[in-house]
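Handoff note, outgoing to incoming analyst
You'll be picking up this chain. Sequence as last confirmed:
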Amino acid sequence: MVKLSVIVPFFNVRPYAPDALRSLRANARDDVEFLLVDDCSEDGTGDLLDRAAEELPGAVLLRHPHNAGLAAARNTGLDAARGRYLTFLDGDDWVAPGHYARLVACMERWGCDFVRTDHVRSTGRTRTVHRVPHGRRGEVLDPRTLILPADRSTSVDYPYAWAGAYHRRLADRGLLHFPAGLHTAEDRPWIWRLHREAESMVISGSLGIFYRRGISSSLTQIGDVRQLDFIRAFDRVLMETSDDREAEKFLPKAVRTYCAVIAHHLSTPEKFEPAVARALRDRSAAALRRMPQAVLDEVLDGMDAPRATRLRRLRRRPVGAEVAA
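Most recent structure output, in case you need it:
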């Protein structure tokens, strides 16, 4: 039986894929499969994956005929996965030896729906530890109780899919697939849905995953229109949270997080192409008007003055009919 399926999308990460593949080899076991999803790479990454499919124990190579994005690549891996437990890795990151064995042991010990872990962020030669923003480790928790408070960073603000492992029963319930068509922030609706609808989780202090930041090929470093997909992602968070049985309780958190992300992007307009910067302002103004207005008023009253002022001004910005729709 396959105990763990590791889903690893790759797209044009030729300089970094060898680190990822070596780390997978250091975690190979008879009961682990590695689903290597080539999202139509054009830089030689595919050649590395061809060799890995032959040499890496447990490797399964899956190919997209056209570039479809990270969400679609992860979904392709999920559809092919056979493991009792599932996890993710991005093709430009890597894991420490024994990391997946520790994840499996944690899942088996606690019998929970999912486990979340801390991680190490790698920026050049700098390493920094980033922790799940909740202090209770090594005990079974109700994920819904970790969504709030609205005015502090919580577990739903730590959306990294690769920072944990997930029981197959979540996939069977449709909770692990990512929204199709999003090029960024695809993990935001995903992590909110997981916390609203899963029944149990454990936070582990394991530091076995290394997240590479600041590389030029990363979408977060490219200021084109795909970056604006965060608006569609958070619109989905609001829509799905509005249907929750405790919508009144959770919506202030969802709206506040959405506003904080808008304010963050507005504070760094230089990273966007000029036309994209204009579209950011227009689409963000329209997004503010789509939010539940009473909740938005409450959120803005509770934010710091610089961000609240910027967002209130944006809220009054004229928006064309096409953008508003």
